[in-house]
Amino acid sequence: MHPLANTEWPHGAIRRLVPEDHALYREVRLRALATDPQVFGSTLERESALPDPHWRARLADPDFAIYGIFEGDAIVGMTGIAIRSDDPASANLWGSWLAPEARGRGLSRVMYRARLDWAVERGLARVTVSHRRSNVRSMQANQRFGFVLSHAAERTWPDGTVEDELFYALALNRPA
Ligand SMILES: CC(C)(COP(=O)(O)OP(=O)(O)OC[C@H]1O[C@@H](n2cnc3c(N)ncnc32)[C@H](O)[C@@H]1OP(=O)(O)O)[C@@H](O)C(=O)NCCC(=O)NCCS
Question: Best substitution site from 40, 137, 159, 163 to test ligand 1's pocket, by max atoms within 8 Å of Cβ?
Answer without folding.
Answer: 137
